[in-house]
Amino acid sequence: MFENQTAIASSHSPHLRKPGSKSVSSDLGAGEPGNSVQEGYVFPLTVGEMKASNSPMHTTAIMPSPIFLWRFKVIWFLIWAFTCCKIGWDSVMRMSADLRDLFLYEAFLYYNPLLLVTMMVWLWGVCLWVFSQSTINYAKIFDLDSNHLTHREIWKCSIWMTVIVPTSMTAYLYLYSHGEVALAASQPVILYVAVALVLIFPFDIFYFSSRYFLLRTLWRIALPLQPISFPDFFLADILTSMAKVFSDLERSVCRMVHRQVATIAWFEADSVCGSHSVAIPLVLVIPYIWRLLQCLRQYKDTKEKPTLFNALKYSTAVPVIFLSALKYHVSPDRWTYVYRRLWLFSSVVNSLYSFYWDITRDWDLRCDNIFLI
């Protein structure tokens, strides 16, 4: 009986060790009189455990904090911005005073469309942030899938655009001011080609699903043969507000195609890519024609008469655009006494009609609704 109890006690003894290992005890206070075993607690260690304790500990990878990364990026962004401003300013000051303003106008013409688009992407990210903070289910409203871009991803894209476009512009100014005209002319061309390739890149990188959604929506806008969805007319409305972008984009692409970048041909107002070009009013009127066709398609599907009045609103923009283009195709006297008056009249009609429609229909700020608020 005592042997069994001894065996049980030995099986729970703290001095048990692994076979083949040598036990080492650390007896705290065992030599002091009056201390029991509990007071002088024994810590058994094996040789293997001592070796493990003496060996250097495995270090884990230390990741920098998000605040540190954010500050690091801000510092690099400020350094980049200062460098671009310094190089651009020095490059402009190297040119003669009589060509400086004209050259800056040309550089602004090439890069203004992409700079405005970059600003629009920034503001779109702000809109998505406001939607998310207000718990608005914008993904359902815009008919987006679960892989849609969040405001953080939109801002990431806009940051890259903010860096790439001014960098290309700085390279253009620097190369032209230092006599490298051919290399300078290639800078906006490379930038425009790169943007087009990123949009149509057929592989699953660079937010493929979002790029496909954008291209598909643009295709539906160009050919409104199917029922109009909310993303269709929302994006088409945005396009009607980008008249300056499309005007400068047409001039820029035209000069690139006709090899007029960084040449004296862009100085001629009556050149094929100047203000006399008939392509400019055609490019400007296309978004309004798309919205007009969308309204007619909506009337066909819903039979709602307000869609016809909305179509009439977009049709009033057509005379404004083409009468404005006549300025470069008629004599000054004929423009001043005939077409200029028609242009002013059509502009007033279009502005008043658009203002009334936006207030009462799009924003729903009619008097009866205001009193209800």
From TrEMBL:
One protein family per Pfam: EXS
Transmembrane portions of the chain: 68-89, 109-131, 157-177, 189-209
Membrane topology: Multi-pass membrane protein
Subcellular location: Membrane
Region listing for Disordered, in residue ranges: 1-35
Gene Ontology CC annotation, any one: cytoplasm
Keyword Transmembrane: yes
Keyword Transmembrane: yes
All residue ranges annotated as the EXS domain in the record: 271-373
InterPro entries membership: EXS_C
Record field: compositional bias (Polar residues): 1-13
Keywords: Membrane, Transmembrane, Transmembrane helix
Protein name: EXS domain-containing protein
